[in-house]
Every structure is written in C-alpha cells, then in structure tokens.
C-alpha cells in the first residue's frame, strides 16, 4: 500500500483533503443509464476535470484551458472511441498530459524570466477547505509535478495504481514508489510549516 513506511498522519490528511473534494464532485455527478453523449460527458465531468487540473497546475484559468483542450480532443476523436464510457479515461489522460505540458512550458518560461509568486487561490476554493485541508493543498503545490500527479490521481481521482499508471504512462511500480516518495516529501513540507 502507498505510504506504508510513513506515519499515518500525512497520508490520512492527504486522503481526507482530496477525498473531501472527490465527495463534492461525486455528489454533483449524475448517474446515466442511457448511452453517454459528448454533451452528457461535458455536463457530468467538466467540473471534476477542472478540479483535477487545478490540483495539478494550481491555476484555475489554466486548468479551464487544459480541460477545454481535452474536450476538444475528445470531440475530434469521438467517432473512434470503442465505447462512450471509455471517454472518461480519455479525458483524464488528456487532462494529465495537458497539465504536464503546461508545467513544462512554465518551467521553460521561468528559466528566461525571474521567478514570480504563484497566484493566490480563489476565495471560493479556500472557503470550501478547512485550515488542515488548505495546508495539504498548499504542500501539494510544492511537490514535483509527477509526485503531485500521482497523489492527486490516487486520493482525488480515487484511482488504483494500475489506473494511475495508465493515465500517466508509467509503470505500476513507478506509481507505487513515486507515491511513497511524494508522501515522504509532503510530510517533510508539512512538518516544516
């Protein structure tokens, strides 16, 4: 299991915080008994994908752009999907890949410009979180991108190691070791605060 070598406190905090956000999304999702259309997917999954992207890129406007691009790609490839329900996995992978691209571009831009302070989170997003949850989300923002991806997909996306491996394009073992290192780093960050 992820985080076996850690004290249970950090993992519980991450799980509680991202689980809280996941519960908000799950409560607002509609159950569809009929075949999904692209419009259904947009209505049901857009905000969940935006929240996923925000947790990965830490900037709401950029997250919206990443999700819009993911839906645009899905629209272009809609006829090639084997099953409309596979579209959620396609979207998740597209959001993760789009977020990676954003972070790569940011890194390149920072090499040519002086570093700038990250924008503060919106009042709405902060109001939804307790002080502990805010500390966890702030600490997540200090992790390297791959570590943040794995934790967000695990605890917010509620994905298994195999699903995370598929979404991120790495092996299951890499997911497991990355999650363990991420939780260790998160513990160090949070204990330093």
From TrEMBL:
<protein>
    <submittedName>
        <fullName>SigE family RNA polymerase sigma factor</fullName>
    </submittedName>
</protein>
<keyword id="KW-0731">Sigma factor</keyword>
<dbReference type="InterPro" id="IPR007627">
    <property type="entry name" value="RNA_pol_sigma70_r2"/>
</dbReference>
<dbReference type="Pfam" id="PF08281">
    <property type="entry name" value="Sigma70_r4_2"/>
</dbReference>
<feature type="domain" description="RNA polymerase sigma factor 70 region 4 type 2">
    <location>
        <begin position="134"/>
        <end position="186"/>
    </location>
</feature>
<dbReference type="InterPro" id="IPR014284">
    <property type="entry name" value="RNA_pol_sigma-70_dom"/>
</dbReference>
<dbReference type="InterPro" id="IPR039425">
    <property type="entry name" value="RNA_pol_sigma-70-like"/>
</dbReference>
<keyword id="KW-0804">Transcription</keyword>
<keyword id="KW-0805">Transcription regulation</keyword>
<dbReference type="InterPro" id="IPR013325">
    <property type="entry name" value="RNA_pol_sigma_r2"/>
</dbReference>
<dbReference type="InterPro" id="IPR036388">
    <property type="entry name" value="WH-like_DNA-bd_sf"/>
</dbReference>
<comment type="similarity">
    <text>Belongs to the sigma-70 factor family. ECF subfamily.</text>
</comment>
<feature type="domain" description="RNA polymerase sigma-70 region 2">
    <location>
        <begin position="41"/>
        <end position="107"/>
    </location>
</feature>
<dbReference type="InterPro" id="IPR013249">
    <property type="entry name" value="RNA_pol_sigma70_r4_t2"/>
</dbReference>
<dbReference type="InterPro" id="IPR014325">
    <property type="entry name" value="RNA_pol_sigma-E_actinobac"/>
</dbReference>
<dbReference type="InterPro" id="IPR013324">
    <property type="entry name" value="RNA_pol_sigma_r3/r4-like"/>
</dbReference>
<keyword id="KW-0238">DNA-binding</keyword>
<dbReference type="Pfam" id="PF04542">
    <property type="entry name" value="Sigma70_r2"/>
</dbReference>
């Amino acid at each position: 299991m992820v985080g076996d070598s850690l004290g249970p406190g950090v993992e519980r905090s991450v799980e509680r915080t991202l689980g809280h956000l996941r519960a908000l999304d799950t409560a607002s999702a509609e159950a569809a008994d009929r075949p999904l259309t692209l419009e259904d997917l947009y209505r049901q999954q857009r905000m969940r994908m935006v929240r996923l992207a925000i947790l990965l890129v830490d900037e709401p406007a950029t997250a919206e752009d990443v999700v819009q691009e993911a839906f645009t790609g899905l629209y272009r490839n809609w006829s090639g999907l084997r099953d409309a329900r596979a579209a959620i996995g396609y979207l998740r992978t597209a959001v993760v890949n789009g977020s990676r691209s954003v972070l790569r571009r940011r890194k390149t831009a920072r090499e040519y410009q002086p570093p700038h302070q990250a924008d503060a989170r919106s009042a709405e997003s902060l109001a939804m979180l307790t002080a502990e949850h805010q500390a966890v989300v702030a600490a997540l923002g200090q992790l390297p991108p791959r570590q943040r991806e794995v934790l967000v997909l695990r605890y917010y996306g509620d994905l298994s190691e195999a699903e995370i491996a598929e979404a991120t394009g790495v092996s299951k073992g890499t997911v497991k070791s990355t999650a363990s290192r991420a939780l260790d780093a998160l513990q160090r960050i949070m204990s330093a605060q």
